[in-house]
Amino acid sequence: MQNAISSIQHQRRARKGALGKLDLMEERAAYLFLLPWLIGVVFLLAGPIIASVFISFTKWNLSATPTWIGLENYRRMLFDDPDFYRSMGVTLRYTLMSVPLYMVVGLALALLLNQKLKGMNFFRTILFMPSVIAGTAVAVLWSMLLNPDVGVVNQILRFIGIANPPRWLSSNEWALPAYVLMGLWSIGGGVIIYLAGLQNIPPHLYEAAEIDGANSVQKFLHITLPMLTPTIFFTLITSLVGAFQVFDGAYVLNGRGARRGALLFYLLHLYNEGFRGARFGYASALAWVLVILATAAIIITFRTSERWVYYEVDTER
């Protein structure tokens, strides 16, 4: 009996040793597969990020050794650079105009496309397709459509009796609203996210509401919106991040980065300072100010989300 017990214990120890070696081999293999990604993160992401912090306190034009100037770049930004405030104002106005518009229109289209009708998948595909087109191509297309002299939009406006239609992108008054409306072209991605959220709402909630006599508006206000708040919150965060990162379309419409106040977005100003003016220290300082402001906006959004975002799991605890 004692020999049998000893044999079993020996087999268990041998099995544990084999499993330990197998786990170690799998762990090494996992690190080996992760190594290219880790190298990329260190040299292409983390390294440049850390370097940009140092560069933001220097004067550097790539042709010489960076010269330490302390907070001079940040002082210049606040007191000697009117384009900093101009570009920040353009970006903030764009954010306030575009984020609510895109979210409301995206939700409205998602509600329409969520109907159980024949051929609805075709319309979903058609709506999503423009969102995969590159931003530069979209900007070139809309620059032709909104051409004040021969563009299709102004031709239609003249046809219906508007003798002097807006000059759109060449007008300081209309350039930013026109750019916001251009963004509706690529709203399909947000619509798909809303659709996923709508289809995740349990049908029995609507059935119970119908039994209680709720109409469509009441079901939307008391079921759809509360259950969709996590999706709305996600869309809000991604929309805010996207609004702070506007560059490619504005670059094309601004004549490859030329200074033009109406569409001088923050990243375009950063590009002008860094790659046109060869002031990479100052451009790095601009980048870090944007990171701080965007992070603050996202933190505030997360903090306030506790008041209006409803997670169904909270009721099951």
UniProtKB/TrEMBL annotation:
<keyword id="KW-0472">Membrane</keyword>
<feature type="transmembrane region" description="Helical">
    <location>
        <begin position="227"/>
        <end position="247"/>
    </location>
</feature>
<dbReference type="GO" id="GO:0005886">
    <property type="term" value="C:plasma membrane"/>
</dbReference>
<dbReference type="InterPro" id="IPR000515">
    <property type="entry name" value="MetI-like"/>
</dbReference>
<feature type="domain" description="ABC transmembrane type-1">
    <location>
        <begin position="88"/>
        <end position="301"/>
    </location>
</feature>
<keyword id="KW-0812">Transmembrane</keyword>
<feature type="transmembrane region" description="Helical">
    <location>
        <begin position="280"/>
        <end position="302"/>
    </location>
</feature>
<keyword id="KW-1133">Transmembrane helix</keyword>
<feature type="transmembrane region" description="Helical">
    <location>
        <begin position="31"/>
        <end position="57"/>
    </location>
</feature>
<comment type="similarity">
    <text>Belongs to the binding-protein-dependent transport system permease family.</text>
</comment>
<keyword id="KW-0813">Transport</keyword>
<keyword id="KW-1003">Cell membrane</keyword>
<feature type="transmembrane region" description="Helical">
    <location>
        <begin position="94"/>
        <end position="113"/>
    </location>
</feature>
<protein>
    <submittedName>
        <fullName>Sugar ABC transporter permease</fullName>
    </submittedName>
</protein>
<dbReference type="InterPro" id="IPR035906">
    <property type="entry name" value="MetI-like_sf"/>
</dbReference>
<dbReference type="InterPro" id="IPR051393">
    <property type="entry name" value="ABC_transporter_permease"/>
</dbReference>
<dbReference type="GO" id="GO:0055085">
    <property type="term" value="P:transmembrane transport"/>
</dbReference>
<dbReference type="Pfam" id="PF00528">
    <property type="entry name" value="BPD_transp_1"/>
</dbReference>
<feature type="transmembrane region" description="Helical">
    <location>
        <begin position="174"/>
        <end position="196"/>
    </location>
</feature>
<feature type="transmembrane region" description="Helical">
    <location>
        <begin position="125"/>
        <end position="145"/>
    </location>
</feature>
